[in-house]
Write a structure and sequence with these properties.
By secondary structure, the chain is of the alpha/beta class. The protein has 3 domains: 48 residues, no CATH class; 277 residues, 3-Layer(aba) Sandwich (Alkaline Phosphatase, subunit A), CATH 3.40.720.10; 88 residues, no CATH class. 43% of the residues lie in helices and 11% in strands. Strands 1, 2, 3, 4, 5, 6, 7, 8 and 9 form a 9-stranded mixed β-sheet that branches. Helix 8 packs parallel to helix 10.
């Protein structure tokens, strides 16, 4: 190879010297050329080229985790960790960062209408996986951001999560107990090392559903905290299964470089995730990993922030960006500044708007029983061509949220509709009193 290269190089010099009629100066030309190359090389070594801006950016990102796990207990109330003193979750809190108030979208679980046509599970689940409030058909989720030769996995204790399972390489959607599902998860870990693993234990949510739907006369009906409620034992069992998972990851030598996120799927103290109860809007949220601050608490986060943060930890692009997307929770990582003060709490405000809208329209409907003119206010609010305020975009218009262009735009539009309803209701009541 070297001989061939040298022959080509000398041939090039002969041709060059011929063209410039420098045959008599072949040797001098070669010496000059070698000296010139040496000078250029020395300059390059002593003055390296500046790193492009994109490389500077990459040099300042966090060290990448080897893998990420998003682990759920369906229906775990945020207070359950302390009330029941759940040891494995308490360990995660001590070794990681806890969110004091983590907010989900309004926990609507409709399987009809525009939303029901694209998703089989409750609203917070696809929004979390997309990292974006504005849901659309065939929207990218985190699992779609990995090459096909990279293992990703999902395991849930219910088949209801089918619509967020597309794109995973290893899929286990099974109507089984938490213990049975964990057996399958541990077996999967023995054979594979998923880059991203979404896990959802379901029995806590099932217990909450049983509580709110208990028959009249049941001592623990609509009270998950009742000492005889099945809820506590379900929470303890889920924590035991989490302990099995952590132990297996430690045994396999994977735990220390795993970015781990714990969440739940909303729970009211009355049981299940009843939308009008503000407790159902909250989820416990814990981050754990080698680059995560230990024993630390941040005041606020939203479910749309989870996937961008996981993507940052793994060094991959988030599935969505721009309007409706969450932010990277930079403050949970080592050597990163604390949470910026006065961060907007958009999702909390959005949920409050939906609740107020449902209450205002319910009051107007009740008034219309006695005075049908109240229906006129409801119809005018729904008609975008009458009055200045456009219609409110609530849980029946999930597929249209993106029309507002941004989360702030959605809030502004809904606030205008609420202002209209409030004012009209006050005027209607005043007229009823006066006349």
């Amino acid at each position: 190879m070297k001989t061939a290269f040298w022959l080509m190089f000398t041939a090039f010099l002969r041709r060059l010297s011929y063209l410039f009629r420098l045959k008599r100066l072949k040797l001098n030309f070669l010496l000059v050329l070698l000296v010139f190359i040496g000078i250029i090389g020395a300059i390059a070594l002593s003055n390296p080229l500046p790193i492009p801006a994109t490389e500077v950016k990459l040099a300042t990102i966090l060290p990448q985790a080897d893998r990420a796990v998003l682990f759920y207990f369906d229906g775990l109330h945020p207070e359950a960790i302390d009330r029941f003193n759940l040891p494995n979750l308490k360990r995660l809190q001590a070794e990681g960062t806890t969110v004091e108030k983590a907010i989900m979208t309004f926990p609507w679980h409709s399987t009809t209408g525009a939303y029901g046509e694209i998703h089989t599970t409750s609203l917070p689940n696809p929004i979390t996986m997309a990292g974006n409030l504005f849901l659309r058909p065939n929207q990218k989720m985190l699992q779609d951001m990995f090459p096909r030769n990279i293992n990703t996995a999902i395991a849930t204790g219910s088949k209801a999560y089918d619509s967020i399972a597309s794109g995973f390489e290893i899929v286990n959607l099974l109507d089984v107990s938490d213990a049975e599902l964990t057996d399958i998860i541990l077996e999967t870990l023995e054979r594979h090392d998923p880059k991203f693993y979404r896990i959802q234990l379901q029995d806590v949510g099932r217990a909450g559903f049983k509580v709110i739907n208990a028959t009249d006369g049941t001592p623990w009906q609509a009270d998950i905290w009742h000492p005889d409620s099945p809820y506590e034992e379900a929470a303890r069992e889920a924590d035991r299964q989490l302990g099995r998972f952590i132990a297996k990851m430690e045994e396999l030598g994977r735990w220390d470089n795993t970015f781990f996120v714990f969440m739940a799927d909303g729970q009211s103290r009355y049981g299940w995730h009843v939308p009008m109860d503000e407790e159902s809007w909250q989820t416990p949220m814990i981050f754990h990993g080698a680059n995560v601050k230990a024993g630390y608490t941040i005041p606020y986060a939203e479910i749309i922030d989870v996937v961008p943060t996981i993507a940052q930890a793994l060094g991959v692009e988030p599935p969505n960006s721009g309007s409706g997307s969450g932010r990277v929770l930079e403050e949970i990582f080592l050597d990163r500044p604390e949470t910026r003060p006065n961060l907007p709490r958009r999702m909390l405000r959005f949920n409050e708007q939906i609740k107020e809208y449902l209450l205002l329209t319910a009051e107007l409907r009740l008034l219309s029983v006695r005075d049908p003119r109240a229906d006129n206010i409801l119809m005018r609010e729904r008609n975008a061509r009458i009055d200045d305020a456009p219609p409110f975009l609530g849980i029946e218009q999930i597929d249209r949220w993106y029309e507002t262009g941004s989360f702030d735009g959605l809030l502004e539009r809904n606030e205008a509709a609420l202002t209209y309803l409030r004012e009209q209701l006050i005027r209607f009541k005043a007229k009823a009193i006066s006349g």
